[in-house]
Amino acid sequence: MALTQTALRVALYEGPGAKSLSPGRRFETVKQLLSQGCSVRSAADPGDASVWVGDFDGGPATPGFQHVSLDQPDFAEAIDGVRIQEQAAPAGQWKPWFPVIDYDRCTNCMQCLSFCLFGVYGVDGDRKLQVQNQDNCKTNCPACSRVCPEAAILFPKYKAGPINGDVVSDADLQREKMKVDISALLGGDVYSLLRERTAKAQSRFSKERDADKALAERQKCLTKLAALSADIPPEVLASLPSPEEIARRAAEAAARARAALEPSN
Amino acid sequence: MSTPRILYCHCQYAQVLPKDVKEQVLQSLCDRGVEFEAVADLCELSARRDPLLKALADGGPLKIAACFPRAVKWLFAAAGAPLDAGQTEVCNLRVEAATAASEALLNAALSPNLPAGKNQS
Question: Which residue of A has its CA nearest to B51?
Fold first, then answer.
């Protein structure tokens, strides 16, 4: 999915040619439009809205603009129709969960780029870290923020601070650093831990050739990994690629991070 | 200084803003009949680099009802629409009571509160 579409811009119109709305109706209308993923402008000047919504008094207020009357029984469907016609972003197909970089804190160390197996991160022309593929991020997984030694990675929809954008305290920084240290002691990062354990398991499987045992071992590894990184949702762990693919992607990510950090000629 | 514009985020796709708080704040804006912009989800607009964010960032004094100021600052920046720290006030609906947030939004006086940071002039 490419995030190329933008939200449908709707003006809640109460100017000449339309009736004023009661506060209750205004509230319900705005709430309805927001639930359909629209951006709503409630102002005398409709601005650059694609469609005007209102209680029109005897017909469209201004010819040449799309109007949707609040009185029509299929109001929600009519808005959806305009959205499709305008090729605006559909509502609710993607939960906007992705990392946001606090560049006041980021040191461009590339640990996150090196860590992420899903190609969320990249670098710009000046080799500065960027979030480039937001929709590749695994919903509810804040793992990359855990490897950031500066607490510079936010997930605004995360439950707790400082990952949710709350102020970063000294205690937070110490805690984040400790997590990285623990991770390093365990083998670099959670994914390398997984690779190591899976490799050991694979070596046994090749001898045992028992698919059930292989599956049980993989599940055991994932459970242990989940216990070590309590924030990683089980479904993310379960959807990790094969050990070979993990190794390939990790090497690729590390190479990209190294390239970004190399001094330019 | 001109009257601050108001942006309200409904955080449609997550449960991080208390439902009663965000609805009471939206209700207060509708009750008062003030002009405002409302977006379904600021995070999604940021990821899509929606041009509305640039228009809001470039348009002068702005009050934003959303979440933590640090998150709001960098969501706008990620969309290529950096906010002016001196002209932006964020009401954090994750922690503020609805009454306090509504009063702050509807008050014509602006109290800028974005984190200054090393990259902020």
Answer: A6
